[in-house]
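User: tokens in, sequence out, please.
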């Protein structure tokens, strides 16, 4: 009996947050939309690489798509803290629908050129600067603090379920209906989120008024708040390291699939589905954990496991082994990301959460251009094996001094 109670205390219903009607609508809409997003995430790099045959120019797509996050995230946080997150999401999701529809039409008519992808990726990046931290910070308004970790994990679960389904569908669609179909499907899928948002009635959390009405002062106030909060600061430093060097799969995997494993677009899609499968299992694992909150182990140890898995992936030569180690990488990466996200939100005051999540987005997604450039240059200069290995090694090398510092400071 005691053993049973202990197990029940440690593991919970992984779908407990869905009992909240608002979150249920939001989650279903996102599940549909994310499948379309992952179809585009597969089609876009394959299209760019087919047009250019250059790993560096391929990496440039990721650079321009995430550079706006690097530049504008801090300003986005102020807007998010002051305005309705629901209204912000309606605007960002509508804009994303239009941008992807334009790309779909360009590809369908046969007029697409590399510079079109660059411009539209930049536009999508500007929209995502506002969209990503808003999607992260609205969860607590939909489920409350008690179920925040579960809600975040369910979001990760839907993201990674889409990462399994989307690439597999994309590979088939690209093979039988053409690349344009993937972009059309993604554009239409944004309507699912918009419909769900119209059914959601969000009651904003109470928050203290901002100390200043000046933009720069508010940014400084948010940064000072993070710096003075030891848990927030340490977590965000680790997120910066992992966020820079781990999620460079859109650069590394298509080149690895084509040049090393000699696969076509279907093989590329299957490899990304493997990674999505591992990530989904990782999200399910986090969702079933106790509501007591995230553990430090997942934040400070899993980055080493992610780094090691990336290195091993780079030196596989058999398709199924590559898929397995991509799945392992995805598993540990999502455990880390969900735990870090929960830690940051649970340790943020309501009046600072938008700014804190904008900084989280800045270091997690905004660092992607640096990681893409790093991976792209090394892959172009050497090969995709070296690209994978260098990204994994960078995580391990940078985490070692951070752990030494933490041990000396005993925090």
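Assistant: Sequence out:
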């Amino acid at each position: 009996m005691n053993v049973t109670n202990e197990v029940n205390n440690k593991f919970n219903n992984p779908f407990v947050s869905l009992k909240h009607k608002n979150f249920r609508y939001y989650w279903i809409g996102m599940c549909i939309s994310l499948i379309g997003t992952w179809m585009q995430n597969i089609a876009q790099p394959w299209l760019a690489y087919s047009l250019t045959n250059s790993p560096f120019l391929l990496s440039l797509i990721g650079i321009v798509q995430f550079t706006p996050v690097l530049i504008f995230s801090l300003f986005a946080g102020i807007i998010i803290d002051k305005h309705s997150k629901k209204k912000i999401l309606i605007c960002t999701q509508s804009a994303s629908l239009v941008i992807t529809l334009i790309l779909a039409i360009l590809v369908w008519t046969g007029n697409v050129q590399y510079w079109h992808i660059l411009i539209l990726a930049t536009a999508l990046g500007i929209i995502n600067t506002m969209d990503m931290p808003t999607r992260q910070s609205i969860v607590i308004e939909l489920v409350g603090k008690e179920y925040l970790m579960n809600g975040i994990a369910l979001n990760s679960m839907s993201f990674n379920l889409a990462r399994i389904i989307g690439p597999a569908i994309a590979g088939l669609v690209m093979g039988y209906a053409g690349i344009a179909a993937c972009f059309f499907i993604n554009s239409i899928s944004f309507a699912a989120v918009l419909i769900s948002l119209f059914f959601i009635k969000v009651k904003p959390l109470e928050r203290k008024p901002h100390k200043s009405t000046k933009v720069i002062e508010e940014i400084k106030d948010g940064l000072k708040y993070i710096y003075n909060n030891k848990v927030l600061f340490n977590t965000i430093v680790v997120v910066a390291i992992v966020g820079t060097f781990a999620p460079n799969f859109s650069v590394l995997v298509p080149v690895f699939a084509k040049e090393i494993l000699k696969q076509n677009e279907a093989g590329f899609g299957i490899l990304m589905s493997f990674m999505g499968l591992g990530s989904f299992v990782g999200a399910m694992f986090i969702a079933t954990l106790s509501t007591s909150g995230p553990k430090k182990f997942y934040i400070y140890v899993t980055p080493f496991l992610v780094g090691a898995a990336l290195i091993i992936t780079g030196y596989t030569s058999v398709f199924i082994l590559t898929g397995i180690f991509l799945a392992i990488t995805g598993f540990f990466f999502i455990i880390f990301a969900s735990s870090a996200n929960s830690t940051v939100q649970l340790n943020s005051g309501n009046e600072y959460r938008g700014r804190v999540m904008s900084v989280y987005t800045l270091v997690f997604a905004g660092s992607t251009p640096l990681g893409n450039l790093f991976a792209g240059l090394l892959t172009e200069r050497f090969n995709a094996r070296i690209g994978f290995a260098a990204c994994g090694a960078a995580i391990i090398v940078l985490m070692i001094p951070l752990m030494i510092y933490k041990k000396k400071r005993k925090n």
